[in-house]
Write a structure and sequence with these properties.
alpha+beta, Jelly Rolls, Nitrilase/N-carbamoyl-D-aminoacid amidohydrolase, six-stranded mixed β-sheet, 10 helices, elongated
Length: 465
């Protein structure tokens, strides 16, 4: 009987604690399972609270609340013990309320360091070169030695948001060899009147992420001598075959492939999508077992678009992209602009497409990257080299041009550092580069891995109209 009464009392006590209003735990130095509040300066410190029944699992939520003053900035932080040169999966869930732009105002940060909190050397980050005088005073000459750069923060992306509004941040990271600890920070910043709640956070040992190798091909071929769209398309098969024999997964062909070189105007060449040209190319994609991207003129009622099509190795139309930024000669001739940045999730990666003049307007590539693109395929008549779009958005860029000039647009594959991995130096050729989408790209010095920073470091300021 006494035991039963004790259990009842204990249950009642637990219910009392669980029913506490969050505001009752705002005072004092908070701690919850090793998590503590952090702010860069006390005068911009937001309110912190613990929600005992919070989080997606109901086991506790870490709350940050911003008042109506602008510029407040804070995070919940916790330090974990890690083993150097091992892999760890970081996972955190966040639900926001009254927040203008969660992408900009919330993020998760991971730092690897030693027991004293000092960032450790990470040899994966590009070395810097340091000059040093040799001990031999007689020679008194400088030698260069390479030294590692200290580890920089990592930022896991959002991979899913459930029906209750919980956004899941997660990714796998390798600790530098010298690391003994890792600190995780769960941030809310710079909005007014906003609230975030974090829960179900873990940093646990993981297997290394699997390699995601994909072979990207660019063709430099301009159809000639034909009189119809089909004449042009028939000329492509040898080049598609050549890409297939090099085990290409994705081949990018030139822009306006059904009207180049045969005298057809955009309106004369325009057709529905799906339609005859997409069906013809889909058959070739299936025959040669690769993905194909090119552009044709699409007719939709009274409108004509410069439309890129993505065809699968199974011979299906995966999707299409309508050129958002028609060039001057296009809109003068009645070509309408598209208004969306679709990204297609395929077995070989997340593929976005842009077309020619799109490369001159940064919003297009940025829109594709924001929608998850890892690879951007770009048929292009010929403009200035496009490496900036690869660098600023941290995507692989595959370009198919009709030029082989050194100072004009190339047919080739560009990496995340803006390097041209392969380039077509001869007309009527196909080049292929193998890349690993799982491989992290580290910038020298203070930059670290720039790809993870893009989400929360892009500006939140509307451009002038």
């Amino acid at each position: 009987m006494h035991y039963f009464k004790s259990v009842v009392i204990l249950i009642a006590a637990c219910r009392s604690v669980m029913a506490m209003d969050v505001a009752t735990v705002l005072s004092g130095e908070l701690e919850f399972d090793g998590w503590r509040p952090f702010s860069p300066r006390d005068e911009i410190r937001p309110d912190f609270a613990i929600n005992p029944r919070g989080g997606p699992d109901g086991r506790g939520g870490l709350v940050i609340k911003l008042d109506n003053r602008p510029g407040l900035d804070g995070a919940w932080t916790k330090t974990f013990t890690v083993e150097g040169d091992s892999y760890y999966r970081l996972t955190a869930h966040c639900r926001t309320r009254d927040i203008a732009n969660p992408r900009y105002h919330t993020y998760v940060e991971l730092l690897f360091h030693d027991a004293q909190g000092k960032l450790v050397i990470d040899p994966r980050i590009h070395p810097s070169v340091v000059g040093r005088v040799l001990p031999d005073a007689k020679s008194n000459r400088l030698i260069n030695r390479k030294v590692g750069v200290r580890s920089r923060p990592f930022y896991p992306p959002i991979v899913h948001t459930d029906e209750h509004g919980w956004a899941k941040f997660t990714d796998v990271f390798r600790a530098p060899a010298a690391a003994t600890h890792a600190t995780v920070k769960l941030h809310l910043r710079w909005d007014t009147g906003a609230k975030s709640e974090w829960g179900e956070v873990s940093l646990v040992p993981s297997d290394p992420p699997p390699a995601r190798k994909v072979r990207l091909a660019a063709a430099n071929y301009r159809p000639r001598g034909g009189k119809t769209a089909l004449d042009n398309l028939r000329q492509l098969e040898p080049h598609i075959s050549r890409a297939s024999t090099q085990n290409a997964d994705l081949l990018v062909l030139g822009e306006c492939i059904t009207s180049v070189g045969n005298g057809l105007s955009s309106s004369e060449a325009a057709e529905p999508v799906p339609g005859p040209s997409s069906h013809f190319l889909a058959d070739l994609a299936r025959k040669y077992n690769l993905y194909i991207v090119t552009t044709i003129h699409e007719r939709v009622d009274h409108l004509i678009y410069n439309t890129a099509i993505l065809l699968s190795r199974e011979g299906e139309l995966v999707g299409k992209y309508r050129k958002v930024c028609p060039a001057r000669d296009e809109y003068r001739n009645g070509i309408a602009p598209g208004r969306e940045y679709p990204v297609f999730d395929t077995p070989i990666g997340k593929i976005g497409i842009m077309i020619c003049f799109d490369v001159h307007e940064p919003e297009v590539a940025r829109g594709l990257r924001a929608n998850g693109a890892e690879i951007i395929a770009m048929p292009i008549m010929g403009r200035h080299p496009a490496l900036a779009r690869a660098i600023e958005n941290q995507v692989y860029l595959v370009t198919s041009s009709y030029s082989i000039n050194d100072d004009w647009m190339q047919s080739g594959v560009w990496d995340l550092g803006g390097n041209l991995l392969v380039r077509a130096t001869e007309a009527d050729s196909v080049v292929v580069a193998e890349v690993d989408l799982s491989k992290r790209h580290f910038w020298p010095g203070n930059m670290g891995e720039f790809k993870g920073r893009l989400r929360h470091e892009r500006p939140d300021v509307a451009l002038p109209k």
